[in-house]
Specification:
The structure holds two protein chains of two kinds.
Chain A lengths: L2 H14 L10 H11 L5 H13 L7 H37 L6 H28 L4 H16 L4 H16 L1
Chain B lengths: L8 H13 L6 H12 L5 H13 L4 H44 L5 H30 L3 H15 L5 H18 L4
Helix pairs in contact in B: 1-2, 1-4, 3-4, 6-7
The chains are: A mainly alpha, B mainly alpha.
């Protein structure tokens, strides 16, 4: 097995166990490893792939498939997918048996209350570090802020926002 | 629910294929609830919500975790695999196709347009993450202690660029101790 495949497995299997709060939290570390450390892709390509994964159906963490694809072709995509999802799935499978029986225990409430603020912090941090990682001009800044507000306070479908953002940069940016 | 026979692996797979197709633009948990609880009656609301809470706590994509939980509850390990395969099969294919198209478009005429459109979608995607943060914060973060923990995690990773492992190693124990100390009695 080639070195790149092993690096992909090591990176994503490790991040899989750290992806608290739904997976957005590992984006900053993934960006640093894939762009700055391994030079598999540029910061701009990383943001493009983040956008593709977010616009397509399914979990946003499918971005690992695109990073793997760019780094090592279809084999890279396959090992990245397995490395990202197998560890966390195995953990849920094991914990599921104990979870129901712990419904009213004191520790479960404490764990739930302790993890919530960490998860929310990770979600904010992922947005901020993506903005730092790419050259964010005035228009992307405005689009980011506007869509954050609209998504936070209205029930608007994210697909409409994504299409709106694409149109805005197509019209102004080219 | 004791007299309910567990669904077949094929039925689990098929249900999760349909849930995966509905997940365009998010709101996947709502679709999963509609299919698993309301339409099929495989779990009751309480079981579903308990599984959803667990899926958010454990690392990994919430909806994939939820699929594992539901599959495990209904049919054990094979059930979990059926649900996850059903959920990811179609999105995985779509993402791969889009990725191949994207990599092909680089350096070609039209690549500029793709790049501009993706730039706009990337800017929105960042906004969606921030917006999700606000939504979660409004519902779950009340009181000075949780706000301080959220702010510390946000700034240390998002602004100062500390690595996730280091921040989690410090902030997980801190948050657990704080949650224990401030637990309702």
């Amino acid at each position: 097995m080639s070195l790149v495949l092993l690096q992909l497995i090591g990176l994503f299997a490790g991040l899989s166990m750290l992806a608290f709060g739904g997976g957005a939290g590992i984006i900053p570390d993934m960006q640093r490893a894939a762009v700055d450390q391994h030079h598999w892709l540029t910061a701009r390509e990383f943001l493009d792939m983040f956008a593709i994964a977010r616009a397509a159906p399914g979990p946003g963490s499918l971005i690992v498939v695109l990073v793997g694809l760019k780094a090592a072709g279809m084999a890279g995509a396959a090992v990245s997918f397995a490395a990202m999802f197998a560890p966390s799935c195995l953990l849920v499978h094991i914990v599921a048996h104990y979870w129901q029986s712990a419904a009213r225990s004191a520790w479960r409430g404490v764990v739930e209350r302790a993890l919530a603020p960490v998860a929310v912090g990770l979600t904010f941090a992922s947005g901020l570090s993506l903005m730092r990682g790419t050259e964010h001009g005035w228009l992307p800044w405005a689009v980011t802020c506007l869509s954050a507000v609209l998504f936070a306070v209205t029930e608007i479908n994210p697909i409409i926002l994504l299409l709106g953002g694409a149109s805005a940069l197509l019209l102004v940016g080219s | 629910m004791e007299n309910r026979s567990p669904p077949s692996l094929a039925a689990l797979f098929a249900s999760y294929v349909s849930i995966g197709m509905m997940s365009f633009g998010g709101g996947l948990a709502a679709w999963a609830r509609r299919e698993i609880v309301q339409k099929r009656g495989w779990l009751d609301d309480k079981q579903f919500l308990s599984g959803y809470a667990l899926s958010q706590l454990v690392p990994g994509a919430t909806n994939v975790n939820l699929a594992v939980f539901i599959g495990t509850q209904l049919r054990g390990p094979l059930g979990a695999i059926s649900c996850v395969c059903g959920l990811t099969a179609l999105p995985l294919t779509i993402v791969l196709l889009l990725g191949l198209l994207y990599l092909r478009s680089q350096g070609h005429t039209g690549g500029v347009w793709v790049s501009a459109a993706l730039g706009g979608m990337g800017a929105v995607a960042i906004g969606l993450n921030l917006g999700t943060g606000f939504r979660l914060a409004r519902r779950n973060i009340t009181g000075l202690v949780p706000i301080a923990v959220t702010a510390t995690v946000t700034l240390s990773i998002g602004v100062f660029g500390y690595s996730l492992v280091h921040v989690l190693l410090v902030m997980m124990p801190v948050s657990l101790v704080l949650a224990w100390a401030t637990r309702p009695r």
